[in-house]
Design goal:
Pathogenesis-related Protein p14a; 2 domains; five-stranded mixed beta sheet; two-stranded antiparallel ribbon; 7 strands; globular
C-alpha cells in the first residue's frame, strides 16, 4: 500500500476532509452541488464585474481605489450568491423525490464534499502563511504533501485577488513581486527588527533554478560571489528602507548596482520576490512569464542569489543574472 509520508498538516487536512464527507453524506449530492455552483458562479461574476461597482464608489463617494475595489468585490459576490442561491433552490425543488432518497445521492456527495473541504482548507492555509506567525509553521505547510499542493493552487488564484484587494492587503500577500526591468515600486507597511542572511535558502534556490534549466536542456548557472553580494545588499536595503522595487530610492537600477559591485557583464537581469517560504518564492517566479524567462535564459551563465530572512514577515529574494 503506497504511503503518503505526510506531516501533521496533512493529518489535519485529512480529518477536515473526513468531516466534510460525513456532513456531505447527510445532506446529499444535490444539496452540496447546488452550494458549489452558487459559490463558484458568484466568484466568477464578482471577478468580472467588481470593477464597475468600484468605479461607481470612487466617482460618487470619493473612496480610495483600494477600498473601493474591496467593497465592490464583496458587494457583487454577496448579491450574486443570493441570486444564484434563489435560482438553484427553485431548480432543486423540482427534482423528483427519487433523486433525493436513494443511495446514489449519498455516495455521490463525496465528490462535492471533497471539493468543498479542499477549498476551505486552501483558504485557511493561505491565510496562515500570509499572517505574521512562525516561519516554521509556514514551512510545515508548504512542505506537506496535501497542504503544499493546495497552497500552490491558491497562490495562482491569489495573483488575481491581488488586483482586487490592491494596497489593502499589501502587507499580507503570500507572494509579492514586480515585473523585471520595470520601475514599479511598492511601499512595505512593515519592517522586521532582525534581518538574517539565509545562506541555506540561497543554496537551495540556486538548486531549484538549475533544476528548471536542466529540465529544458539549458546549462546550469554558476554562483558568482560579486553578484551574490550585490543581490544580498539589495534585499537587505529593501527591508531596511521599507520598499520593494528594482530601482532603489537613490535612483539606481540593477545594472548600476551591479557595475558598482564590480560585476562585469554584457547582458544582465534581475528577479525579485517576497514570500513566506523559499518554495513559494520559487513557484511564484516560475508562474510569472517575465521572471521565468530570466531563470531559463540560455544567455545567462552566472547568478547571485541574495536572500535576507525577515522572520515572521518572510524572505526577501533577489536573483541577479549575468552572462
Amino acid at each position: 500500500m503506497p504511503a503518503l509520508n505526510g506531516n501533521y498538516i496533512d493529518l489535519i487536512i485529512v480529518i477536515v476532509l473526513a468531516l466534510y464527507i460525513a456532513n456531505g453524506v447527510q445532506r446529499g449530492f444535490w444539496a452540496l452541488a447546488g452550494d458549489l455552483v452558487s459559490f463558484i458562479g458568484s466568484l466568477f461574476i464578482a471577478f468580472r464585474t467588481y470593477g464597475l461597482v468600484a468605479k461607481f464608489l470612487i466617482a460618487n463617494f470619493t473612496l480610495p481605489s483600494s477600498f473601493a475595489k474591496v467593497i465592490g468585490f464583496v458587494v457583487v459576490i454577496i448579491v450574486a450568491q443570493l441570486v444564484i442561491d434563489t435560482v438553484v433552490s427553485k431548480i432543486l425543488k423540482h427534482l423528483p423525490e427519487k433523486l433525493w432518497n436513494n443511495w446514489v445521492n449519498k455516495v455521490a456527495s463525496v465528490v462535492p464534499a471533497l471539493i468543498d473541504g479542499a477549498i476551505v482548507s486552501a483558504i485557511i492555509l493561505t491565510f496562515i502563511i500570509s499572517a505574521p506567525i512562525s516561519g516554521e509553521v509556514k514551512s510545515d505547510i508548504t512542505n506537506s504533501k496535501i497542504g503544499g499542493l493546495l497552497v500552490d493552487k491558491t497562490t495562482f488564484v491569489e495573483r488575481q485577488l491581488v488586483d482586487v484587494f490592491g494596497g489593502a492587503i499589501n502587507d499580507t500577500l503570500t507572494f509579492l513581486t514586480v515585473r523585471p526591468e520595470s520601475d514599479e515600486k511598492i511601499d512595505l507597511n512593515f519592517k522586521p527588527k532582525t534581518l538574517t542572511v539565509d545562506q541555506e535558502s540561497e543554496a537551495k534556490m540556486l538548486e531549484l533554478v538549475n533544476q528548471e534549466r536542466v529540465r529544458i536542456g539549458v546549462s546550469p548557472l554558476v554562483a558568482d560571489k560579486l553578484l551574490t553580494e550585490v543581490a544580498r545588499t539589495h534585499s537587505k536595503d529593501m527591508w531596511e528602507r521599507s520598499y520593494f522595487a528594482h530601482i532603489n530610492p537613490d535612483g539606481k537600477d540593477p545594472f548600476q548596482r551591479m557595475k558598482e559591485g564590480g560585476v562585469r557583464f554584457g547582458t544582465a537581469g534581475e528577479n525579485l520576490a517576497l514570500a513566506p517560504t523559499l518554495e513559494l518564492a520559487h513557484q511564484g517566479l516560475m508562474n510569472s512569464p517575465g521572471h521565468k524567462r530570466n531563470i531559463l535564459d540560455p544567455s545567462f551563465r552566472r547568478v547571485g542569489v541574495g536572500i535576507i530572512d525577515g522572520g515572521i514577515y518572510g524572505k526577501m529574494v533577489t536573483q541577479d543574472f549575468a552572462d
